[in-house]
Specification:
By secondary structure, the chain is of the alpha/beta class. It contains 27 helices and 28 strands. The structure holds iron/sulfur cluster. Iron/sulfur cluster binds next to helix 3 and helix 9.
Length: 728
């Protein structure tokens, strides 16, 4: 709104629109001229772009790409380019708050931490140690997640720790473990350039990982295939788009495998030397799968499936990458196995341009996988392996009996346990499940049920509104540590400015809680900085797949990140790949081939709910918009959710473009969403982005989870679409 001075022409906003010359940025807005620049890594997605934060008068005033960074060569996407604005967002959490009689009151840190420890200890005394659940995040630096794991498992003595990474990457983790004996994406970004065939499955890089899309486009010679039910921006870049029916990717992969087998396009020497399970897989494919069956299930022409299989099978270097279209499924882990089957059958792994490659979600989802205490013990060790537990106990100087021999509850099971009254205290760190968790009603029941809810976050969110205690945390740009990106590159995130008011880094909060709990000296002896955590952490994965041994903060910064494994003696920093020697992480050194049967997704459309709802992202926003809704340029570009619908369905429902519609499932209703009528979405399907609290798609999504990975099936549920306010 214009001020009176502006209205009268006395204020022409000269300060806002003044220009100045910056030695690096050139002629630019005076507001963006920095006194100094701090090198760091983007805190949004897992691409891991190198960037610099411009600082003036102690404030972040600009961001620019890091010119010679190996990931992005100076480029940034719209979120990265405006990331400094998140630091001064009006919704930052600045003071510890306690809820009394329904209202938040400020309290000193010492009181907040004492409250937290005494309430949790009281609940554990009454209901058992496992009545305390903790949900962390891929937004923490690795040093923080490692510290949190020790604090929760060894300090608080509960196994019920997981991260929001289970909502996006758990299927890739489980799939890799089953196929290769360990987690870890085998490829490198350079494979986008080195491959002659690139198959993307359920991966809309243009919206979700924009800088990786630049890598994809740079390889003009590769034949690019995109399998996606929607004609996404990425599908538009493909040489061949496969508009398969929702969640039929296993049928496509099995059909391709059958063609490879029939036409002798497999690498028998590689299979014999480096895998087990070929006979079972071969029998399964010959008995159960024909190209015609795959065609009938996917809706693709049989000739197209044959063409894709031949193209991949004849590739010199075939690269398959995927993201949430594969992972967000009740068969996510098995779909990963079906992808790995193709790579192993053809020997398309461990070479330049050849890999089955999961692209991660958050900036440090990978770090939580390496250091975590959730689905694995730190350093990709296994809970159930006694030798692994003893190795860790020796490193930490504790009794091995204190290390759990099986994992605790996964994220969805923590929520279900809270809804069922078994988890009584919950600590949620830097994540916003009120917007992000499927089936919002279940989630709300869980959060209402717990006796004590602590939310630790850099921002006030719809989840922190429900908390009993809010702990304000520093965010990207205000703290130090390391992130690991999708290609296993460990990069440094650095502090450019101080956190606001009384916010502290998550690391400092964890150490302070350990102090109150009385375990700081035992678990974190002499630690005062994240570098202390890093120096201990890097000894943990020594000799493991994610070996960090030779990394130092200095070498990481000098090289723009280092890919693991980076063991003692390694000096080569060129792109690295796993399984180059064909040796896998199973005891016999061999990878596993799995017969994978396809199953229809759990909630099929019917007469009452005839449309399949697909959910996803848009390039302007990040997750639940906690940050990006505060960045004016991003919010203006995508201020509201929308629903994409095919023209044939819109005609049948007598709906017009821009109509406000409601989307209803058996679980709830999202009201007042703008309709976009487009052939991007196929008949019988609708699509809606999931970022928006105001029109939250998780009112209608389903709490169905992969039985192996526990990842939610966000991508398909049955809905009907009605004019706004209409009654069915
Ligand atoms: S692509 Fe990802 S890492 Fe790179 S600038 Fe954009 S959000 Fe940040």
């Amino acid at each position: 709104m214009k001020s009176l001075a502006q209205f009268l022409g006395l204020d022409n906003l000269r300060d806002r629109y003044a220009y100045a010359d910056d030695p690096v940025l050139g002629h630019t807005s005076a507001r963006r001229v920095a006194e100094h620049w701090v090198k760091t890594t983007c805190g949004y997605c897992s691409v891991g772009c190198g960037m610099e934060i411009g600082v003036r008068d102690g404030k972040a005033v600009a961001v620019r790409g890091w010119d010679d960074h190996p990931v992005n060569l100076g480029k940034l996407c719209p979120k990265g380019l405006s990331e400094h604005q998140t630091l001064s967002a009006p919704n930052r959490a600045t003071h510890p708050l306690i809820k009394r009689a329904g209202n938040f009151e400020r309290i000193p840190w010492s009181e907040a931490l004492a409250e937290m420890v005494s309430r949790v200890r009281d609940i554990q005394a009454r209901y058992g140690a496992g009545a305390f659940g903790v949900i962390g995040t891929g937004q923490l630096v690795t040093e923080e997640f490692y510290t949190l794991g020790k604090l929760v498992q060894l300090g608080f003595g509960t196994r019920n720790l997981d991260g929001n990474t289970t909502l996006c990457m758990a299927s890739a983790v489980s799939g890799y473990k089953r196929s290769f004996g360990s987690d870890g994406p085998p490829g490198a970004y350079e494979d986008f350039h080195a491959a002659d065939v690139i198959l993307l499955i359920g991966a809309n890089l243009a919206d979700n990982h924009p800088i990786l899309c630049r890598h994809l486009e740079a390889n003009r010679d590769a034949f690019k295939i995109v399998a996606d039910p929607r004609v996404t921006k990425t599908a538009m870049l493909a040489d061949l788009h496969l508009p398969l029916k929702p969640r039929t990717d296993i049928a496509l992969l099995n059909g391709m495998a059958r063609v490879l087998l029939e036409e002798g396009l497999i690498d028998r020497a590689y299979i014999d030397k480096h895998t087990t399970g070929f006979d079972d897989l071969s029998t399964f494919l010959r008995n159960e799968w024909t190209v015609e069956r795959a065609a009938a299930i996917t809706g693709l022409d049989a000739e197209v499936i044959v063409k894709v299989a031949r193209t991949y099978g004849r590739a010199k270097a075939g690269f398959i990458a995927w993201t949430m279209g594969v992972n967000h499924s009740t068969q996510g882990a098995e779909t990963v196995n079906a992808i790995c089957n193709l790579a192993l059958l053809t020997g398309q792994i461990g070479r330049a341009g050849a890999a089955p490659f999961s692209i991660t979600g958050q900036c440090n989802a990978m770090g939580t996988r390496e250091s975590g205490f959730a689905s694995s013990l730190p350093g990709y060790r296994k809970f159930e392996n006694r030798a692994h537990r003893e190795e860790l106990a020796a490193l930490w100087g504790i009794d091995a009996g204190r290390i759990p021999d099986r994992r605790g509850l996964a994220y969805p099971d923590i929520i279900q346990a809270a809804a069922d009254g078994e988890i009584k205290a919950l600590w949620i760190i830097a994540t916003n499940p009120v917007v992000s968790f499927p089936n919002k009603r279940l989630l709300e029941r869980a959060l209402r049920n717990v006796e004590f809810l602590v939310v630790q976050d850099g921002f006030h969110t719809p989840t922190s509104e429900l908390a009993d205690l809010v702990l304000p945390a520093a965010i990207w740009g205000e703290k130090e540590g390391t992130y690991t990106n999708s290609e296993r590159r460990v990069s440094k995130a650095n502090k450019a400015v101080d956190p606001p008011a009384e916010a502290h880094s998550d690391f400092d909060i964890f150490l302070s809680i350990a102090g109150k709990l009385g375990c700081r000296d035992e678990l974190f002896p002499g630690w005062t900085s994240v570098q202390d955590a890093f120096e201990e952490w890097k000894r943990v994965p020594k000799g493991r797949p994610c070996d960090y041994s030779r990394m130092t903060y200095q070498s990481i910064e000098e090289q723009g990140g280092l890919q693991w494994p980076y063991p003692e003696g390694k000096t080569d920093v060129s792109p690295s790949r796993l399984y180059v020697d064909g040796l896998y992480e199973y005891e016999d050194g061999k990878a596993r081939l799995f017969p994978i049967e396809w199953k229809p997704f759990p909630e099929q459309p019917d007469a009452d709910f005839p449309l399949v709802l697909n959910t996803g992202r848009t390039v302007e926003h990040w997750h639940t918009r906690t940050k990006t809704a505060q960045v004016a340029i991003l919010e203006r570009m995508a201020p509201n959710a929308w629903l994409e619908m095919n023209p044939s369905d819109a005609r049948r429902l007598a709906l017009k473009p821009h109509d406000q519609v409601d989307i209803e499932s058996r679980r709830g209703r999202v009201c007042g969403v703008e309709l976009r009528i487009t052939e991007i979405t196929a008949p019988g399907q609708v699509f809606m982005p999931f970022h928006f609290f105001e029109t939250n798609v998780n009112e209608v999504t389903q709490d169905a989870f992969d039985p192996i990975s526990r990842e939610p099936n966000y991508k398909q549920c049955a809905v009907r679409v009605l004019s706004q306010g209409a009654k069915q």
